[in-house]
Amino acid sequence: MQETKGTICTTCGASYGASARFCGADGTSLRNNTGVVDKTQSTAGKMCPICRATYPLYAQFCPADAGRLVLLNSRMGQTQTQARPADPFEFPDQADNTIVGKIFAGKYKIDSLLGEGGMARVYKATHQDIEKPVVIKLMHPHLSAKEKETSLKRFELEIKVSAKLNHPNLVTVFDGGVLNNRPYLVMEYIHGQSLRQFSTKYGALPVDEAITIVMQICAGLQEAHEQGIIHRDLKPENIMMREQADRPDWVKIVDFGIAHLKQSGNKLTATGVAVGTVDYMSPEYLSDKPIDQRADVYAVGIILFELLTSKCPFESESCEAVMAKHLWTTPMPPSSMRKDLAPGCPLDRIVERALEKEPDGRFQSTADMRKALQEAKRNKPAG
């Protein structure tokens, strides 16, 4: 055993002062060390997934960028993630309320909490290397085992979905992974407000503005549908409005957390249990029937009605009553609620068709609905 007045790393032999906690060369914990150097496993390899540098087996993290090292499994051609002690570059599971100002995943500084849902919290952060604002979606630590399993699958699906999408009206995902057994997504930060906040502030919108917003929603969904992706939870809260309204594309669809990949055939909910927001659910979705892109068309019809009238077409005091109206009630036309729309106008017909109870009676794609909206805008009476 090597003598030292300070502390010695028991894997590489480097010496440190008595107050040191970790070895700067390989990340070994210096707490409770025996002073005995053990390099019996130093020939096997590990790799930093960030900078791709390789290290001996006893190394725990990369001293260059704090990346958590993974085992190199040459037989299977894969890497295996290895757990390591908590360090200054990460935060423990229970500390979500204290992470503002700290560094996440070695490169994102947490700036503020933006909001949270049943599955995850959403933070604004800054990428330290390029000083770019981003949004981090981090799964809750307190979920039950069953909830965590479902949430993990949804996060995995959201990563796969996001990787397929590239469109100015869809949010861009930059990064993703698992930290301390909690999956996360890193997305572009959209400087603006949700369509819910926007419509609550301004009420019923001018016809041209409502049409322009919904046409952009249709364009983003068309890209998703062409990739075999159905959003399934389209609502004003999941549509962001950039502040730069002079841009040609200033509407962004976000949150594909419960999206459905048509080719996968897998469901993340039990039969008879719908996931989403009941105000925007199609009749076939509520009836637990197979859904396709026309379920999103139905949700867009609800949003269009809401932007034109500042009301949902189906309102009631209970979710059950709203569901019943989706299934059996025909909504009033938008023209019945505003004087600048003539009865039977093109927008009345567009809303009526989008909200048909049977999918075969609706627009068969958001591209078709977008064309109808474009035509209605082009032929709008002057004045």
Describe this structure in words.
The strands form 5 sheets. A 6-stranded antiparallel beta sheet has the order 7-8-9-10-12-11, with helices on one face. Helix content is 26%, strand content 19%. Helix 3 (207-226) packs antiparallel against helix 5 and helix 3 (207-226) packs antiparallel against helix 8 (366-378). The chain starts with 6 loop residues before the first strand and ends in a 5-residue tail after the last helix. The protein folds into 3 domains: 1-74, no CATH class; 93-188, 2-Layer Sandwich (Phosphorylase Kinase, domain 1), CATH 3.30.200; 192-378, Transferase(Phosphotransferase), domain 1 (Orthogonal Bundle). The relative contact order is 0.07. The chain has helices spanning 145-164, 195-202, 207-226, 283-286, 293-309, 319-328, 346-354, 366-378, and strands at residues 7-8, 15-16, 45-47, 54-56, 70-73, 78-81, 103-104, 108-116, 120-127, 132-139, 173-179, 182-188, 192-194, 229-230, 239-242, 251-253, 260-261. It has 8 helices and 17 strands. Residues 1-5, 36-44, 74-94 and 263-275 have low confidence and may be disordered. The longest helix is centred in the middle third of the chain and has 20 residues, at 145-164. The protein is α+β, with helices and mostly antiparallel strands and 383 residues long.
